[in-house]
């Protein structure tokens, strides 16, 4: 709901119709009805020769109003939405007697670009973003985009833009034929008006995109392109159906014409919009934007303080990754190490991280040198008085961290934020020997820190709201999604996912093949299965972190002998290229038949196979046995208020663990229920069918 559409008719006979619906001029149903009303009025008025459609405040439109989807997905009627494609885009705009020109500034995405494509020409400002990103929401373009974009830019480019949900800039749009002219923002309306008048008077051709065929490939070629795209989708996104629905609509249009394609698109859109995948992906869209609107903090209206200089203590894998993330966003960073050897190694890692961007063509040599010059290596705290924030990233040793924080308190100014990158240790312990509890905060990055998009911000009871607001702002500035979490073993992400590997170890001890487990979980949508993940993390780290969970949650852990036996056999994971898999020089994983004996040993020691025989189970059982305990732990994290809102856990799981976003939203759904029992130990799973073993019972 909301938004408005205005119309002003000039002395030149051009009606300028303006969409007004901040912040992105989304096409809410009221806006679409408003557009219809103004177009009908313009058609009737004798003083109107031609029409220009534009958006207020330098933005054309961010597309259909996404806030309307949840209601439709819960069974609400989609009302006028289903008619927009033919009633508004074709009959009212494209086939009207008076021509329309779109004046596009800022962005024309989704329905916004579709609206512009039903006009007879498009004039854009240089920095406009143009795209059909609907697929990232689990839906497909629904206002004729699957038909008009291929007709304007050709099939290959149109399919790429839709499947990748990737917008293009005006210049590329002009080269492709999507944009007719690029002009400065101040000339936008003047030029668009002139184009509209020129089309009305016949000086310029009146082109209807839906009927064009000049950019379309021949039928044979088109079929090949679509066949290739389908195969790609099936290979890279086997659990998703909406990209295939999108290709079906495109194909129908190529074979039977734009109008028939439009009807097919409407049918496919209606099916996609109510799918579980769309529910999950729409939830993720809003979850991502909700993370900084923290109840209890947002209302305080605090402004983030300026953070210019940051220090990182420890230049290991995590520390150097954090330094890289900071310098990439223009921060000056001091990297402190304990001796020159470690310091040079840390600086070398930062350099290598940046060099890899140069190699991939993502950074120029000049930018590389400028970025690297932002890091200064030191061995003492002498220059720490100038820093606004310190992030400690040394090994997980409580005594060491405590002594570092004592030093930091002595050497930093008294409003400097003191952050720790610990992934498991209680923050109260880390800061136990300091008096600066209000500015002590967790900044938990995920490895590799310069690539992974999540930043868990951990607060204690004493962390000040200002420190939280400051770290949130820094997180956004370095292009991370910051999620605020409470203090507990593993915080939100590692805590929720500790049963992921433990349940997998238990299944192995029950006789299920480890590669089958990994394949089942990967096919379900995780980026890798639990055994491959353990190899990646490294067995040393895995065992140390596992021990923390055993200590913290003894009632619901499964302690397998598998990891210790692998360590005894000098199998450390990817680190020495021997773990549950073996790895070649390019780190390509291959199953390792030689570990059969180690697995058997662990199975014998655990003695949990029913009657000593391997447990038979389907792939679905495997997924449930592993993911249900994860969901249970998520419920506990919510119940203990470790996260303030359920959507934070959804987005943290997606960005921190690669949980498939199209399956996301379940945790938010579950949080609507009252958890009445949480005390069923994971180990009992073997005695029940997987479904019975969900140890969260909830009532609606
Ligand atoms: C039938 C049609 O084919 C179907 C459609 O059109 S579906 C919609 C297709 N459009 C999209 O997918 C675009 C989605 N939006 C975006 O990618 C980005 O928001 C953007 C590029 C427009 C702006 O990005 P950015 O400047 O970083 O701001 P961002 O924080 O993302 O968004 C600003 C606000 O606009 C809202 N917003 C953005 N697009 C919206 C949309 N299409 N509908 C409703 N709200 C929208 C956001 O939720 C956010 O609200 P908040 O301030 O309350 O959190």
TrEMBL record:
Entry's Gene Ontology molecular function annotations: 3-hydroxybutyryl-CoA epimerase activity; delta(3)-delta(2)-enoyl-CoA isomerase activity; enoyl-CoA hydratase activity; NAD+ binding; oxidoreductase activity, acting on the CH-OH group of donors, NAD or NADP as acceptor
A GO BP annotation: fatty acid beta-oxidation
Keyword Oxidoreductase included in the entry's annotation: yes
Highest taxon in the source lineage: Eukaryota
InterPro entries xrefs: 3-OHacyl-CoA_DH_NAD-bd, 3HC_DH_C, 6-PGluconate_DH-like_C_sf, ClpP/crotonase-like_dom_sf, Enoyl-CoA_hyd/isom_CS, Enoyl-CoA_hydra/iso, NAD(P)-bd_dom_sf
Subunit field text: Monomer.
PANTHER family found in the cross-reference section: 3-HYDROXYACYL-COA DEHYROGENASE (PTHR23309), PEROXISOMAL BIFUNCTIONAL ENZYME (PTHR23309:SF49)
Protein name: 3-hydroxyacyl-CoA dehydrogenase
């Amino acid at each position: 709901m909301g938004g408005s559409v205005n119309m002003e008719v000039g002395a030149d006979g051009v009606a300028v119709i303006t969409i007004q619906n901040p912040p992105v001029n989304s096409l809410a149903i009221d806006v679409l009805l408003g557009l219809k009303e103004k177009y009908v009025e313009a058609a009737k008025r004798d003083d109107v020769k031609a029409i220009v459609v534009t958006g207020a405040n330098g933005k054309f439109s961010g597309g259909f109003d996404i806030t309307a989807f949840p209601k439709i997905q819960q069974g609400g009627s989609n009302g006028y939405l289903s008619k927009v494609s033919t009633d508004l885009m074709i009959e009212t705009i494209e086939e009207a007697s008076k021509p329309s020109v779109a004046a596009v500034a800022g962005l024309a995405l989704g329905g916004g670009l579709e609206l512009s494509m039903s006009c007879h020409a498009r004039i854009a400002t240089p920095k406009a973003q143009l795209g059909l990103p609907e697929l990232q929401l689990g839906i497909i373009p629904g206002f004729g985009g699957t038909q008009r974009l291929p007709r304007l830019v050709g099939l290959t480019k149109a399919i790429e833009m839709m499947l990748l949900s990737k917008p293009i800039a005006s210049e590329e749009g002009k080269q492709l034929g999507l944009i007719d002219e690029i002009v400065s923002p101040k000339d936008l309306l003047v030029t668009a008006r002139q184009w509209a008048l020129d089309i009305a008077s016949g000086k310029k051709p009146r082109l209807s995109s839906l009927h064009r065929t000049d950019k379309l490939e021949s039928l044979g070629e088109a079929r090949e392109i679509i066949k290739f795209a389908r195969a790609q989708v099936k290979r890279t996104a086997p659990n998703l159906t909406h990209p295939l629905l999108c290709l079906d609509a495109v194909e129908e249009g190529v074979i039977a014409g734009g109008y028939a394609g439009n009807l097919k698109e409407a049918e496919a859109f209606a099916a996609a919009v109510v799918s579980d995948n769309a529910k999950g992906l729409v939830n993720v869209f809003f979850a991502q934007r909700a993370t900084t609107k923290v109840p209890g903090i947002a209302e305080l209206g605090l402004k983030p303080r300026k953070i210019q200089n940051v220090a990182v203590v420890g230049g290991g894998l995590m520390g150097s990754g954090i330094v890289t993330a900071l310098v990439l966003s223009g921060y000056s960073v001091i990297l402190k190490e304990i001796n020159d050897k470690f310091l040079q190694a840390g600086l070398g890692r930062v350099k290598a991280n940046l060099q890899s961007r140069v190699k991939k063509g993502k950074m120029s040599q000049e930018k590389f040198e400028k970025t690297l010059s932002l890091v200064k290596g030191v061995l003492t705290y002498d220059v720490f008085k100038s820093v606004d924030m310190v992030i400690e990233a040394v090994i997980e040793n409580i005594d060491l961290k405590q002594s570092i924080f004592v030093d930091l308190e002595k050497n930093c100014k008294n409003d400097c934020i003191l952050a720790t990158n610990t992934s498991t240790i209680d923050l109260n312990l880390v800061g136990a020997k300091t008096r600066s509890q209000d500015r002590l905060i967790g900044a938990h990055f995920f490895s590799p820190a310069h690539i992974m998009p999540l930043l868990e911000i951990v607060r204690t009871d004493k962390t000040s709201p200002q420190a939280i607001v400051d770290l949130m702002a820094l997180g956004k500035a370095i292009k991370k999604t910051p999620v605020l979490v409470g203090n507990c073993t593993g915080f939100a992400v590692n805590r929720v996912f500790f049963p992921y590997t433990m349940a997998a170890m238990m299944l192995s001890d029950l006789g299920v093949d480890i590669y089958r487990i990994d394949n089942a979980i990967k096919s379900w949508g995780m980026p890798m299965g639990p055994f491959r993940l353990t190899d990646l993390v490294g067995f040393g780290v895995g065992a140390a972190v596992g021990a923390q969970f055993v200590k913290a949650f003894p009632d619901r852990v499964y302690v397998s002998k598998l990891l210790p036996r692998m360590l005894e056999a000098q199998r450390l994971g990817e680190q020495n290229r021997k773990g549950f898999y073996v790895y070649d020089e390019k780190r390509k994983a291959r199953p390792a038949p030689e570990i059969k004996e180690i697995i058997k040993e662990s199975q014998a020691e655990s003695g949990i196979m029913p009657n000593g025989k391997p447990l038979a189970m389907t792939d679905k059982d495997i997924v449930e046995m592993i993911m249900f305990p994860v969901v249970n732990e998520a419920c506990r994290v919510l119940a203990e208020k470790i996260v303030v809102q359920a959507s934070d856990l959804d987005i943290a799981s997606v960005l921190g663990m690669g949980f498939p976003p199209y399956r996301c939203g379940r945790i938010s759904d579950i949080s609507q229920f009252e958890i009445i029992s949480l005390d069923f130990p994971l180990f009992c799973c073997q005695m029940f069918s997987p479904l019975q073993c969900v140890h969260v019972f909830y009532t609606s």
